[in-house]
Specification:
By secondary structure, this protein is mainly alpha-helical. Helices cover about 60% and strands about 0% of the residues. The chain is flat and about 65 Å long. It comes from Muribaculum caecicola.
Length: about 130
Amino acid sequence: QSADEQWNLWRFTAELLRREKENRSENQRRHRIKNAGFPQLRYLNEIDTDALPADARKALPTLETLDFIKNGRNLILYGNPGTGKTHLATALGIAACNAGHSVLFTSVPRLLTQIRECRNALTLRSLENK
């Protein structure tokens, strides 16, 4: 492309750096999603809001802003089976990964097991860093 448009060295270098930055950002985003531990990939635009419980439907617009992350708050979803918790948590987690945040997706039993194992091995800091 540069030969066709007769780019000068500065323009060519700037374009090369821009593309490298884009590529690195995309690789980092994919890495964050892969390391989060999502059970499947789900996205906010796939959520059937009519199927969500009323409290989740009401909270969704606020959650979509990801302000809870900016405010240093965690998100824990609970409720009966089949109410969309996993889909919602995964979709919000992927949105957070896309926004540049690291995410840990886990279940309460798995989290408790990890805490016990870390406490026994005196490595709770390593779990906190996840």
